[in-house]
Amino acid sequence: MAEEEEVKMEVEAVQSVYGDDCVIIESYPPYLHLHIKPRTADVSSQQFVEAAIGIRYPKEPPLVYLIDSKGLDEQRQTLLLSNIRDKACELPSCFMLVALCEEAVERLSAMNHPDGDCPLCLYPLVSEDDQAERLPFMKLMSCFHCFHSECIIRWWNWLQIENKNNAKNVSSATLHLRNGGDQQGMEL
């Protein structure tokens, strides 16, 4: 019974540290979901990754899995889980929940950078050559897709021109129909 009480206290500690980002599915044996974000002082524009992990405990070692993620490709998802699982194997079997959650946040913070190519120009967002000049980029807040700023501005300007042209074409067609349009086939 003492172990159960200790584990419940540990779950309470996780919940007090992570607040609404921690959802307790089952109190004993503990099963929780944790929404983790990199440490950016809550500046969401500087957040390029996030994840939700599930932890079942006190299995030996705890079962840790990824529920959802944004901004992490498959390789970085695998690395994140591998690092958390390695940490779980290093820690003693009790009082590890907060340490595992902190490991997850630390690892995610280290991965907090855009990865891959700009979806518009297909060139890397961040050059692999540290000597190269970095192009400014931006991300969409809802999905975390990142683009070179110049590419998204060029696309946005093109879209505005297309919308304007489409509106002119619709207006011309409407005016043409109002003025009698094509009279062929309309006479009985």
Automatic annotation (TrEMBL):
This is RWD domain-containing protein. Residues 9-111 form the RWD domain. One of its GO terms (biological process) is protein ubiquitination. GO terms for cellular component: nucleus. Signal peptide: none annotated. One of its GO terms (molecular function) is ubiquitin protein ligase activity. InterPro entries: RNF25, RWD_dom, UBQ-conjugating_enzyme/RWD, Znf_RING/FYVE/PHD.
